[in-house]
Amino acid sequence: MKLVKLIAIAGVVAGFTASAAFAGTLDTVKSKGHVQCGVSGGLPGFSAPNDKGQMVGIDADVCYAVAAAIFGDRSKTKFTPLTAKERFTALASGEVDILSRNTTHTLHRDTALGINFTYYNYIDGQGFLVKKTLGVKSAKELDGAAVCVQAGTTTELNLADYFRTNGMKFKPVVYDTTPQTREGFDKGSCDVLTSDKSQLAAIRSELKDPSGSVILPETISKEPLGPVVRQGDDQWFNIVKWVLFAVINADELGVTSKNVDEMKKSNNPSIKRLLGLEGEMGKDLGLSADWAYNAIKQVGNYDEMYERNVAPLGLSRKGSVNDLWTRGGILYAPPIR
Amino acid sequence: MADKVMTFEKLPDRPPPMSQVGIVGWVRENLFGSKTNTILTLVSLYVLYILVVPLVDWAVINANWVGEDKSVCDANKAGACWVFIAARFNQIMFGLYYGANPDQIWRPTLAFALLIVLAIPLFIESFKYKLQLGAFILFGYPFVIFALIHGAWLGLPVAGTSEWGGFMLTFVLASVGIVGALPIGILLALGRRSELPVIRTFSIAFIEFWRGTPLITILFMASVMLPLFFPSEVDFDKVLRAMIGITMFQSAYTAEAIRGGLQAIPKGQFEAAEALGHNYWKMMAFIVLPQALRISIPGIVNTFIALFKDTSLVSIIGLLDLLNMALITSRSLEWKGFDLEGFTFAAFIFWICCYAMSRYSRAIEDKIDKATKY
Question: What CATH number belongs to B88-101+159-369?
Answer without folding.
Answer: 1.10.3720.10
